[in-house]
Amino acid sequence: MDSALFVALGGAFWLGILLSLSPCPLASNLAMVAFLARRVSDPFAALRGGILYGIGRGVAYVFLAALPAWGLASLPRISAFLQGEMGKLLGPLFILTGMVLLELLTFPSVGKGIGMGVQERLSRLGDLGTFLLGALLALSFCPVSAALFFGNLLPLVVKTGSFLALPAAFGLGSALPAVGAAFLVAYGLKGAGKAFGRIQAVEKVLRISTGTVLVLLGLFLSLRDIFGVTLLRW
């Protein structure tokens, strides 16, 4: 595997994990834990539900990232422009995303989530409903998750041309907390909700450190690709 693609896959996976720990997805994951707790008398059903929920989130992110990126790249003029200019765009996009993670830039929420009525109706569909609930909740973006998805993942997908591998790695990372919660519930660990609460403190550290790295990386790429300033031989 090409080393650059390997690094991009690792970055996409990390962005997926960070997105899953941001406020909006974390809140929906907590709701999912409460839903799975109803099935605690059937550990296998709780575990299966958590895995299907995580798969639903992952599949939604794959399609949401792969289709527009592939569509842009399939148009000859746009593809040629992106191949020539994406390197210059990545630096500013990384800086903006880092500033959002550091809360130096704030934007209103993109979505308000899925109503409780819809969630209840989906829950009546059993495993299919759990899968669909994960997919629908994946589309509810808050500023941080939107910045990670649209500001970082999509440009990486377009630049590398990896329309399935990168979104799949991102989706896998975003699904890990949901699957982990399913294991906790399935094995009778009722402190799953408290565990997610502790994650909020970890999320702040991860968000600030990732935001700082993105700003520094964005400055480096901007100086190199836009202004022609070579600080390191890379």
* Alpha carbon gyration radius: 19 Å
Average pLDDT figure: 78
User: Helix- and strand-based class?
Assistant: mainly alpha
Largest sheet report:
none
User: Considering DSSP H and I runs of 4 or more, what fraction of the residues is helical?
Assistant: over 70%
- Quickly count the helices: 9
In terms of DSSP E residues, the strand content is: under 5%
Q: How many β strands by DSSP?
A: 0
What characteristic shape results from the CA principal axes?
globular
Task: Give the distance, in angstroms, between the N- and C-terminal Cα atoms.
Answer: 19 Å
Along the chain, the helix and strand elements come as HHHHHHHHH
- The unreliable regions are none
How would you describe this structure in keywords?
9 helices, 79% helix, 234 residues, single chain, mainly alpha, 0% strand, globular
Description:
By secondary structure, the protein is mainly alpha-helical. 79% of the residues lie in helices and 0% in strands. The protein has nine helices and no strands. The protein starts with a helix and ends in a 9-residue tail after the last helix. The model has no long low-confidence stretch (mean pLDDT 78).
Which helices and strands, and how do they pair?
Layout: H1 3-21, H2 23-37, H3 43-74, H4 76-101, H5 116-123, H6 127-138, H7 143-160, H8 165-186, H9 192-225
Helix pairs in contact: 1-7, 1-8, 2-3, 2-8, 2-9, 3-6, 3-7, 3-8, 4-7, 4-9, 5-6
